[in-house]
Design brief:
45% helix, globular, alpha/beta, five-stranded parallel β-sheet, 145 residues
């Protein structure tokens, strides 16, 4: 799978852990930055991540910041992206199954590395359920539906 990952300064360490984990699982991972813990603005990285998911360069995205809230808001500004802020595996799986989420967002100050990996596993191993959920998901990008 092609996966893009991005963070702000508060989540650089978690990003590095998750990037390595994903590569070890055999995924192709594009690290969109930042490379250091020097202060950056999460919207810049959220927009960059949303762009590569929206254009198909990456199948999925992993968005990280201190709480996960800010970067998930930035990603969701792109109508082609459905970022779900999660903190445990059930929500990660439901985000895929019910909402066809294509970006998982987590907070490095709230979710430890082991739990973040469990969330990633659930997210990446769950398919979109379609059916009754498909029309609702369509409305997320096209409110006039």
């Amino acid at each position: 799978m092609r996966i893009a990952i991005a963070s702000d300064h508060a989540a650089v360490d978690l990003k590095a852990d998750l990037r390595e984990y994903l590569v070890d699982l055999g995924h192709e991972v594009a690290d969109l930055g930042p490379e250091t813990a020097d202060r950056v603005d999460y919207p810049d990285y959220g927009y960059k991540l949303a762009s590569v998911v929206a254009d198909g360069t990456a199948q999925y995205g992993v968005a990280l910041c201190g709480s996960g809230i800010g970067i998930s808001i930035a990603v969701n500004r792109n109508p082609a992206c459905r970022a779900a802020l999660v903190s445990e595996p059930l929500s990660a799986a439901l985000a895929r199954e019910h909402n066809d989420a294509n970006v998982i967002a987590m907070g490095a100050r709230l979710t430890g590395p082991d739990m973040a990996k469990a969330c990633l596993d659930a997210f990446l191993s769950t398919d979109f359920g379609g059916g009754r959920h498909a029309g609702r998901v369509e409305k997320l990008s096209n409110p006039s539906c």
